[in-house]
Every structure is written in C-alpha cells, then in structure tokens.
Specification:
- Two copies of one chain form a homodimer.
- Helix content of chain A is about 55%, strand content about 10%.
- By secondary structure, the first copy, chain A, is α+β, with helices and mostly antiparallel strands.
- Chain A has a six-stranded antiparallel beta sheet with strand order 3-2-1-6-5-4.
- In chain A, a hairpin with a 2-residue loop joins strand 5 and strand 6.
- At the A-B interface, helix 7 of A face helix 7 of B.
Chain lengths: ~400, ~400
C-alpha cells in the first residue's frame, strides 16, 4: 500500500502531541499508560504495543497494558520484571549507560549489530554486555517487540514502552523513534506527577482518618466514663447525617457537600464537653441537684470552647454549642428560638433525643422506636424544629432508623 | 542585522518545547510564569514580556512578572485587573467569543482593523464590541504590548501573556503566534496542575493540623482533670524531640524524619490513658494505695489500647506503652530492660522525669533544674538509658532546657 510518508509523519506528530497534552491531568499511572498504548495501536501502523510500569511498593516492573493483533498481545498483569531482569538492567545499571547513551530506544537490529561487532569487548565488561544483550534479545522476542523505549524521569526508569512490528514490516526510522521517545519522556513526567499527586492525596486522607479516629477515641473515652451512653456519639452522628440527607431528598432544605462534612464532625464532637463534667455527676443515677444540673448543662459551652483551637467551620461549633436549644426557646445555653437555632443544631437535637429515648440504660430499658417517634412528633414545633422531625418520620417509615 | 529566519524559528520551537517540559513539576504558579516570561525575553527577540495570573481568592488578575528593557517593564504586583477589565472581558465573556475564536492571540493590528471595519456592527452588540476593543487597545498600549495570548485551561482563563514589540519591530508571524499559544496552553495546564497540587497539599496540612490540635485538646482535657500536670504534655513532647535531635547531633543515634514525626505524636499522646483513670485517684494528694497505684500504672497499657484504631506507627505506640519502663528492668508495664526498651520510650522517660521534677505542684515547689539534672545523671544506667541522659545533659549545659 502506497502512502505518502510525509502524511504519516505529520499524523504521528499531531497524534502524539495531542496525547501528551492531557497526560498530566490523569492521576492514575495505569490508566495513563493504557491511553498511550491504545492511541499508539489505534492511530499508528503498528501490530502491537505494550507498556511496563514501575511499582515502587514491590520494586518491580509490571506489564500493565498490551494492545494489538491477536497472537501478538501479551497477557497483562502476568508479566513481571524484577530489577534484575536483563531489559531493566540494560536501562538502569551504570555499566551499560554508554550503550544506551544517545539512543532514544533499543531496537532489535541494533542489538544484533552490537552483539556481532568485535570491539564491544574492548572494555572489561564486554563479556557482560554481550551476555546481557543476548538475554535482552530473547526477552524482546518473547514480548513480540522490535523496539523498547525507556521512559525516564530524571534518573528513574518509570516505564518502558514495547513496540511490535509495523504493519508494513519496515524498520522504525529515526524520526519515528524520536517521537516515541518524546512521548515516553512526557509519559514519565506525567507518571511522576501522578505519583506525587497520589502520595499527597493519600497523606490528606490519612491525616483526615487520624483526625476522625482521634475524635472517636475521644468520644469513646467520654462514653467509657459515662456508663449510659455506649455508642451514643456514633449513632447521633449517623442519625444527623441521615436526617440532613432526607431533608434534601424531600426538598425541605438545600445542603452542600461542606454541610454534610460539618454536621458529621459536629455530631462526633457534640458531647466532647462532657469530659469536663465530674464523673460523679455524669454517672449519678438519681435526680441531679439544681447545681449539678447547671454543671451538666455546661457541657455545651465547654465543648464549643474546647474545640476553639481546631478552628472548625462555624456549623460544626454551632452543633456542639446549640444541640440542647429548643424550638420554643426553653432550651440552653442561650435560649434561642425557631430559626435562630442553627440548622445543624436543630437536626442534632432530634437525633440526640431519639437516641436518648431508644437506648437502654442500667436503670431502664430503652423505649420502642415507635413510642420514641410518637414522642418526637408530638414535640415538633415546641421542642424541635418541624423540618428535621418530618425527615426523621420519613426515615422511620422507610425503616431506615 | 540579517539573521536566517529558519534558524530563529527552530530556536523558538526548541526553547519553547524545553520550557514546557519541566512546567508541570513546578507547583508555584507565580514562579512558573516568571520562568516562562524570563525565558521569552532572554531567548527570543522581544523588547518586553509580562504575564498576568488569575487569583481565585480575590477573583482578579494580577501582573506578576514583567521583564525586558528599562522603560518597557511594567510595575509588578501593582497592576491588577478585575474581571470587568476590558482585556479580561474580551477573553472571558460569551458575547465576544466569535471575535477571538480561531485566533491564538489578540494582536494590536487586528484590533485596529476590526475597529475600522464597518461590518463588525452587523449584530446588535457591534457597538459594545467596538467600544470594548477601543478600551482593550488603550489597555495594551499602557502595558507596552502589541499582542496578548490567553492561557485557557478548559473554559477558565488562567493567565494572559503580554508581548511587547520585537527588537526588529516586525510583526509577529502566524508561526510565532502559534508557538506562544502552545506555550500559553501548556502553562495553563501546568498552572491548573499546580493549583490542584496546592489545594491537596493545603488539605493534607489542614487535616494534620486538625489531628494534632485534637490531640492537644485531648491532653489539655486530661490536664484539666489532673490538676498537677498543666502543660506537662507539651513540655514532655518538646523535651523528647530536643533530646532526639541532640542524640543525632552528638552522633549517638541516627534518626530519620519519620522518627521525629513519631516521637512528636507519641509525646503528645503519652498520657492519654490517664483519661481512663478515675478522677479521685488522679487528683489524690496523699499516698496512693497499692490498688490505686496499679490502676494509675494502667494508663500505659490503656493508652496504647486507646490509640489502636489510629493505626499509628509502632514507634508512636511504643512511646505510649513503655515510657515508664526502667533501664534496669524495674519499670512497668512489662519490666523490659536496656535495649529491649524502644528508644522512643527511653527518650520520653528522661523527658517525663525531668518535667515531673521541675514542675511545681500544689503541695510542693518544683525542683531547681540543676538539682533535677543531678538526679537524672545519677540514675543513668539504672532508671534511664544513658544515651538520652547524655543528650539531656548537653541540652542543659547549652541552656536549652
């Protein structure tokens, strides 16, 4: 088939450039090399292409993508290369640097030419080189490849592109190899960028996990002291998030992602101030004296105070401070009414009351859910904001609380 | 001066390509555009170049870099553009899209041509367009620019490259403008990448801050209950880190970055188990009964237990569990001896003892530092590992504790 060679080259170039273009926005190295290999096989006149990617966790290279004609493809995930593998050694070990320096790629024909040329044994490692090249030759053969293009980021071999024969079975010319090398170089940088991204992303997640778990340890500590409230913190948090979701679902509120984040944190921290309440008050089974009750009520303000160094969003602090306010203004600490009570707190008040009623305590069994729900419904508009109550009723009717 | 134009073009291309190359590894957008503008002015035949960068915090564009001949440069940081600024409107507002579509850049000559062409008033917004272009013209003039190249990432205008006249005062040809556009496009992607990076990095830092602050809240809570230990947690943490640093400085140990991270966390958490010790034991001024002492000692195991859900590195947990072990094996909870005691714990034992001795308590004044140091020195090899003791002595002699 006669094709204008210039046309093909321009196509090469444009395709490769447009492939490189979006690379850095892909933060999954495996996906990245898949897209590259697919593009190469789809757009260029090659029977087969594959790419092996370095896995730092295992210090090895794994063939992650192989595309092309049946019978040319290599089983993916199965083919692994240790850093002792000839193909990897050739690119990575210092003693072989002179061999690959100035080359964009290792091409089968070159290898054969070097193996049979006498003067390669000029230096003391000549024997090693011939032996290694023989092995590389065999490896490339078993991978159906006639050229390998290393993808370096600085001195790190991030990946290797394996290229099968062209459809017309001609050799790759220098311009083609240059393009593959440019592509590999862009890919290496994109892979590095993705790695940095993933590392940072993992760190952010890990730190958040530490934060959340520390709060949970803290709340379980409160619960360990307050023998009545085992698991209370987590249940109130879950109910609160569920009520908020339901309020969005039934159209009574519009909450953004931050709101859910904040009510979650607020739920976990809502009783943190109890840590400052003396154990003898926290664990008293009889009726609290007025003075004791005042100290107990202080956990809302104390809690809001304790989290000040965290610089949490206002919504989080509101939930901690105001979850004992009542819709009719008879609550504490500030006696706010109706819409004055931040919605985080209004939601948590319903969740808190429901859990308090349905949980068993040493001196009394918890109420049936149905009875508790009736109680909550009855107090909508007096104790509770009617909107979260309505959402709670819907959750109950759907069997979700 | 006669220069082979082909040579210049190749130079352009290579310089621009190599500039684009490392862009994505620069995660500071301001530095990034500085490098681009410097390179343009140094390598290419342009009297002046500048770049304005979008600041999302303030929703405005700021001129961050201006390079070139004296008299052509623009004061940096001073020149700010709101999104209402003509130059910005031209690139961002929908109604002007037809004007810039298909153009890589806005060139002064084009603007003049459009302004004086009748058919631009064909549509209803024609008047607006002419008026806007007049203003853009004036703006570019005041910025010493004859061409503006927008840097878009998707639909977001990330930056605008402003180009002054060429040294030979010829117009930019299409190929030159194409290169600038390619450079701007790469820059836009790199800026976006940097933004994502910075956002993630900020998130990781913020989450870590939340974690650390939550631990501090937790330890201050313990201290609030245990009236003797105000500020103890933070002091022990600081002493521990200082001792570890000094051990590296005097060559008695090699600790990596992770170690310092871990001993810091461990120090903050070392007494967390005290939260489970009843207040009446924690606050008892008289001598503890054997039974009470056993409960008190339990804070080491309890603490290690409490932090289990955090999945902290072993070094952190070791410090919590073993900071009351003694070098001679007479400590608790496990009676480990010498090198069996993890070094985190051995360091913290010295820090803990020093702070316990030097802090004042309601029923006795703290010891003089000198007396405390003598006591610690005396117990090196019996109570304490001699290496952290030696480091502590050095810190004391340097007046650092």
């Amino acid at each position: 088939m006669a094709v204008n060679p210039t046309m093909i080259k321009i196509d090469y170039k444009r395709e490769l450039e447009s492939a490189s273009k979006g690379m850095i926005m892909i933060h999954d190295p495996k996906l990245l090399i898949k897209l590259i290999v697919r593009m190469i096989v789809r757009k260029l006149r090659i029977k087969h292409a594959a790419m092996i990617l370095y896995e730092s966790d295992n210090n090895r290279y794994v063939l992650n993508i192989s595309r092309g004609e049946a019978g040319h493809r290599i089983p993916v995930g199965f083919t692994k290369f240790s850093t002792d593998s000839p193909l990897i050694k050739l690119f990575v070990e210092k003693q072989f640097k002179p061999l690959i320096e100035g080359r964009n790629a290792i091409v089968m024909d070159d290898i054969n030419r070097i193996i049979w040329r006498e003067n390669v044994v000029d230096n003391s490692t000549g024997g090693d080189i011939k032996e290694l090249l023989h092995k590389v030759n065999q490896q490339m053969d078993s991978l159906n490849s006639i050229a390998c293009v290393p993808a370096f980021y600085q001195d790190d071999l991030m990946a290797v592109l394996l290229l099968g024969q062209k459809h017309d079975e001609t050799k790759f010319d220098q311009e083609e190899l240059n393009f593959f090398a440019a592509l590999a170089s862009d890919a290496a940088m994109a892979i590095r960028n993705a790695q940095l991204f993933n590392d940072l992303s993992r760190e952010a997640k890990r730190n958040r996990e530490l934060f959340i778990q520390t709060i949970l340890v803290l709340s379980s500590t409160i619960e360990a002291k307050d023998t009545y409230t085992h698991g209370h913190t987590e249940r109130v948090t879950n109910y609160s998030v569920a009520i908020a979701r339901q309020m969005v679902a039934n159209g009574s509120a519009e909450f953004d992602k931050d709101f859910f984040e904040n009510i979650y944190i607020s739920g976990l921290l809502h009783d943190i101030g109890k840590i400052a309440v003396p154990e003898k008050i926290l664990n008293k089974t009889g009726r609290l004296t007025d003075e004791e009750y005042e100290i107990m009520k202080g956990h809302t303000l104390k809690g809001a105070d304790m989290v000040r160094p965290l610089n949490l969003p206002q919504e989080c602090v509101d939930g901690i401070r105001y979850h004992h306010e009542r819709f009719d203004g008879a609550g504490y600490p500030d006696g706010l009414t109706g819409a004055e009570i931040p919605i985080t707190a209004a939601i948590m008040a319903v969740a808190d009351a429901y859990d308090a009623m349905t949980s068993s305590r040493p001196y009394r069994k918890g109420l049936d859910k149905e009875v508790a729900m009736r109680e909550i419904k009855k107090n909508a508009g007096t104790q509770f904001n009617p909107l979260p109550v309505q959402a709670m009723i819907e959750l109950y009717n759907q069997g979700r609380v």
